[in-house]
## 1
Amino acid sequence: MGAPYDPADERTALARGPHRPAYHFAPPTNWLNDPNGLIQFDGTYHLFYQHNPAEPVWGDIHWGHARSEDLLHWTDMPIALEPDAAGVDADGCFSGCAVDDGGVPTLVYTGIDGDRARQCLATGDETLRQWEKPSVNPVVETSPPGVDAFDFRDPFVWREGDGWSMVVGAATEPDSRVLLYRSSTLREWEYRGAVFVDDRPDVMWECPALVALDGRGRGRDRDRDRNGNQYLLLGSLLPTRAVRYYVGSYVDERFEPRAEGVLDAGDFYAPQPFVDESERIVLVGWVEEARTEAAQRAAGWSGLMALPRELSLDEDGRLRTTPVDEVRRLRELEYDLPAVGPGDGTVLVDQPRSETVELVAEVSGTGAGTGTEPSSASISVLRSPNGLEETVVRVDPDRGTVTVDRSHSSDDPAVETHEQTAHFEPTGDPVMVRCFVDRSVVEVYADGWACLTSRVYPTRADSSGIALSTTGGASVDGGTAWELASVWDDFA
Ligand code: DQQ
């Protein structure tokens, strides 16, 4: 008999890989996709995730599980859900959520059996280690008329009034719908119609979520007065894989959008929000790979989670996305970043030289608006001393763009290199750019208005430098950099 499976051993072995993140959550080994079942239960955060425990490729989908006290340091837990060969989830335990049902942790997920998708429950003990699938499964047996039997998945449940509400993503002909259900027990559900219809043809809403922007719908007085009935609807859309958000009202079981945008324009998909015990809306999203399947197999793992983010509305009703405050605890050695004005060329930054850093820099444009020549400031990270390998984060405050240019990120010709761009509304004011670098992850926030998470795979051991440069009338008005700590023991 072999030694029992210990995720800690797997983590230690994989930590030596050059692209393994130091402070983002990655699976102990093999495959990870969507975050599932996010919940803070008795003070402890739990992250479940779509997981193939046998191979670093999608398939045989289980629910992996980890817990954390601070959203940064995670402890692996036993696998929570596995397909049951004789059950309605024989072909996979697809995405879903977690709720606290009067002290009973309860997972609501999609069971896949052949080409049928049905909504199911699992209940946990107080430690969230042991999970049972009650015989009442499936709790939603068939998709409503007109809804494809397979494209009916990803339940998201919340407390509403004296019962429960649930949205489920669905592909319909000719549109895509977010379906609404109500229940008082979690075990019997009544279909209430589409809470939202996306009338574009051939779109499938995966992982929909509807959340009150004032926390649990109660909110702090300040927010309630200011924001009134403000809800956030999220969806991950096939086939474009865009992650869209809509801010609007939710009245009489219908969602009416008034603003919309892209949540993260990078390698980011299937995020899930949850409300924590301090009523923050926290979002975790899957960061996909941009390397070949062969490279993922060679690495022994695939996929990771973006930093947990807090979502909120500003005084003008615009959605803000910022890393949770806890992330500041990772900061170690601090360095000043120099100011770089127009015409200063490329300025090499001596320190830090590290593949795990946070950079905060203020970038000014010309203030002349969008019709002008491009004026941008660039922050090069993961840069080799000769500059042949580098990932360039380019910010144009006049046009309101943040771009990650990956054309020189890697000497490996097999990785994806296309540029990724996020947009924000230019105000004429300087933009505070916050950039997290974690070996194969570059996660950028522009003042909280635009987000972009990209995967890059430098090949050289010395691709760990930083350089700053500008074009047109833009400038870097200085900033700060920190080396960031690893969140894993025994990190190589
Ligand atoms: N991933 C899950 C589905 C979901 C998709 C399967 C989104 O439940 O629709 O692994 O990435």
## 2
Amino acid sequence: MDKHIALDIKNAIAPAAVEALVPEAVDALAHVLNADAPGNDFLGWVDLPSRTDAALLSEINAAAQAMRERCDVVVSIGIGGSYLGAKAVIEALNDSFAAYGHCPKGPVMLFAGQNIGEDYLYEMQDYLKDKRFGIIVISKSGTTTEPAIAFRLLKEQLEKQVGRAEAAKSIVAITDAKRGALRKLADEEGYKTFVIEDSVGGRFSVLTPVGLLPIAVAGYDIDALVKGAQDMQKSLAAPGPDNIAIAYAAARNALYRSGKKIEILVNYNPKLHYFAEWWKQLYGESEGKDHKGIFPAAVDNTTDLHSMGQWIQDGERTIFETVISVENPARELAIPSDEANLDGLNYIAGKRIDYVNKLAETGTRLAHIAGGVPNLRITITALQEAYLGQLIYFFELACGISGYMLGVNPFNQPGVEDYKRNMFALLAKPGYEKETEEIRKRL
Ligand code: PA5
């Protein structure tokens, strides 16, 4: 078994405040594991790692291999939970300059359907002209507007470029087993498909084909990713002093109850930018309900120390931070010596870049603690599939526990529907006539 990720909460809040909430966290864990609380029909992700068998992984790997052979560019279309997990893992593992074709592990991976930007879609279509491209279209409901628009455009383009029959071989759809427009279309056109289980909500779906297929197409080891999640599932199944999901959930709820309403996820490795975006959806959509919930924010340090650093150090004391610290970078690079030393850096000549980065992290942590920003710290050995699998499952389980402690149903998202209803009314979508009439009066 790989070394596990670790959590340090000693700089967050007095141990007694956390200990006081541990029984609640243990109780919440039991509700998640026993599926006996609100939202219990959306708990398919809890034992998903242990249920993911070799047959499914090999089917995903085979579909990925087929796309890798047919395509130089693959566009993964989806939004929210049908986008962020794959994007997070691929960005964490990819070469920083992969988008420019550097150190390719596979086709160039692009994402669409995560916005309604006309320029974005136009420029993507322009880029894809004459390229051998394929599409992974992901929508659990099969009816979400953003991915539906992107898919309509790119499907038409692909069919024009290679013909309908060849296009169908370069399209994979991931959707509900039976329901939705995408299922109907995929069946009619004969696309390869994978199913998103009813019991796994979008933001908990990265370890299903939703995340696993794009990650495998990008050239990464989904078996190791799932194995990491399986290790974490085993490790977090029982309550006890070593259960870091209980400790994290108890600490953040203790902080929330003491007035700390904002949690900032901090990284010191730019490859984790989209991991933080995934985490924001996971916690924001799970906890922000009934006018309650910790607001999930994120910064990329040291970049943001030069922008948000001032606010975090000296602004309103309603925040705490959770730092993800990666112990070992994948590469080695030292600071060169310079005879003239005009920049005065010779005192650290020969030191690794990561040595400076780690001391920036330590210095910032000490400044924040002294300045009244409670600090939680998660260490992860390296940005590798197995550790990312651990981290994903850890955050998912802790989110379920934390949401129940907060007193909300962590597994629904009623608020996400509100904007959709208004948008459909404004667009005069058939079936929304009454809403259209009402909303136009408000303009
Ligand atoms: O968490 C959620 O359920 C949402 O944010 C969805 O992930 C998002 O709306 C995409 O939905 P779908 O996969 O049905 O297109």
## 3
Amino acid sequence: MYIESTQLISIRDKQFEMFIPEEQILARVDEIATEINLAYAELRPLLIVVLNGAFLFAADLVRRLTVQPEVQFIRISTYGDQMISSETAQILLGMEIEVEDRDVIIVEDIVDTGYTTDFFREHLSQQSPKSVRLASLLFKPDNYRGTQAPDFIGFSIAPDFVVGYGMDYAQQGRELRGIYRLSAN
Ligand code: IMP
């Protein structure tokens, strides 16, 4: 487990340093919610939350929405316990969600290479949604090789590995209230 000080933590063999504190995350989630509330004012969007990493972002986002969203969950396997993206994807949960004619917002914790969301968008497009947009708390533009970048972005960050606020390193660190990045030391 880890020894926590406010600025530096250890998870397994790695050290992570404070990167985005909780207050800053929540202030940004407020702003994204406002954007979505404006863009979907007359609509009832279907939020599809990509588990596991997006569960805290989704919880905070949903509670700030006034557009009466429907919320569904999906799980896509791409990563395992590695720090690099793998190139195969598979839907493990949520195959039954009906999106035909719906205004879908995919909710992601982080878009890195973009492979996962491209794969999922392709899957959705076969079921004729009315519209599909993507909200991601974090975006790593330097790693991105996908075709449609997120429409709603919390923070664009350098391609460092991060944990906390729902995101894990080898299934640990999800409960951290802030976001920490891999430390060079
Ligand atoms: P992509 O397919 O490369 O865009 O990766 C998307 C998924 O990889 C995200 O939903 C995360 O679950 C995971 N991921 C990518 N970068 C990180 C990171 O820095 N920390 C934790 N998970 C990450």
## 4
Amino acid sequence: MAAVFAFTVFAMHADDLTALDMSTASAKRAAYAELLKQAEALFHGERDWLANASQFSALIGQQVPELNWAGFYLNRDYPKPGSELVLGPFQGKVACVRIPFDKGVCGACARTGEIQLVEDVHAFPGHIACDGASNAELVLPVRVNGVLWGVFDMDSPRHGRFDQTDADGMSALVSLFVRACDWS
Ligand code: SME
């Protein structure tokens, strides 16, 4: 709570963030509850989507253990449905820039509008290997006013890294991100 308060006063101080433990199911649930508070504090007083998307990627990349990439791919045709994703704010190594909706895990998420929880990316047909270190992936749709605005993608070197608790926790965080921004 002290760290959250410090954010609201000083806007942002990375050193106030404490590393999150996700080593057990209950610790993971508690960590996602804490992440929601940290994200709320981070967005406080700021409604610019680019600033908030950048901070969101940094927060997830920094706080969620065992990730090698975390970030947005955007439907730049929004509010039209679109057919291709373009790289947005992220944390991690340089990545593929454009992903058609019919390619990869991110494309599957954009095409179906459904969360993609992939335990082994090498078994996923059409997976795009931006970073050879990635073995598991979680991709969530980001909808604004009911239309696909983009996806949020997380990669991990550990097979089976993501489970339903990650999907639920990240869904709540993505919803908070959408509510925290102006979209006009
Ligand atoms: N693996 C993704 C591509 C994006 S990178 O992981 C950053 C996919 O198959 O869509």
